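Query form — protein Calcium/sodium antiporter

QUESTION: What is the three-dimensional structure of this chain?
INPUT:
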Amino acid sequence: MTDVWLPLFGGLVLLISGGEFLVRGAVNVATRLGVSPLVIGLTLVGFGTSTPELVTSVQAALSEAPGIAYGNIVGSNIANVLLILGIAALLAPITVASQALKRDGAVMVAAAVAFAIIAALMPLGRVVGAAFVASLGLYVWLAFRQERVAASSYGAVYDKSLALQEADPGLAPARKDASPLLVSLLIALGGLFLVVLGGRFLVEGAVSLARGFGISETVIGLTIVAVGTSMPELVTSVVAGIRKQGDVAFGNIVGSNIYNVLGIGGFTALIAPGGVPAEIVTFDNLVMLGVSAVLLLVAWTSLRISRLEGLALIIGYGAYVYLIWP
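ANSWER: The C-alpha cells for Calcium/sodium antiporter are given below.
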C-alpha cells in the first residue's frame, strides 16, 4: 500500500513546491533583465500555477497513460469550477463586475467546445496541438494589449497572476530584494528539476494505484491527479475569497481553465500525440462544457454566487465523483 501512495503524494509535494521555486526564480531572472512587470505577470506568473498540470499530462502521455494525461486536464477544469470556486464562494459570495471577464469567459467556453469537438472526431495530433498553443499565445498577447491600455478592466490572465502573487507576495515581479541573477537562475532550474521529478512520481503512483485497485487510469486522472495538481488554484482562490476579491477568484478559475485546455492540452498533443479516451469524450467533456456554460452565465448576467450556491457547487462535484467512481 505504501509503495503506491508514497510516490503519489510525494510527487504532488514535489510538483507544487517545485512549481513555486520555478516561478519564483523565473520572475527574479526576468526582473533582473528588466522585463516589464505586466509581461512577467501575464506569462511567467500567470502560467506558474498550471505547471503541475502541464508536467503531469505530458509525462502521462509519454508513459502511454492518456487517461491520466487528458483526465488531468478535463478533471482540473471541472474541479476548478465546482470544487474550488464553490469553496471560494463559501468563504465570501462572488459577484463578477469586470467586463473583461465576460470576454474571457467566452474564450474559456470556446476553448472547451473546440477541445470536446476535436477529441470526439479525431486523435489530438501535433497540428491540433500547435493550433491550441498558438491560440493561447494570441490570447495572452491580446490580453497584454488590453491590460496595458485599459488598466481599469482587468481580465482572467491578469487575475490569475494577481491571485498567485497575493497568496505568495514573493512571486511578485519588480521587487527590490530580488535575488542575484545567478542565484535566481539556479532556483528556477532547481524548481524545474523538482517539477519534472514530481510529475514522474505522480504518474507512476497514479498508474500503480489504478492497477492495484482495479480502477481505470482515466478515473484516477479525473479525480485524484486532477484535484492534486489543482492545489495551487485552490490556495490562490481561497486567499482571494478570504479577502473578498470576487473578480480575482473568478478570473483565476477562468484563466486556469483556458491555460489547461489550450496550453496543457496543446503541449501534450505536440509532445505526445494521441487520442482522448472514449469515456472522457462521451461524458466528462460534456460535464466540462456544462460547468463552463454555467460560469459564462454568471459572468454575463453579473449574477452573484452566494454561499448557498457555493455549497451547491461543492455538492455537485461530490455527485460527479460519485458517478464516475467505480
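ADDITIONAL NOTE: The chain has one domain: 38-167+203-324.
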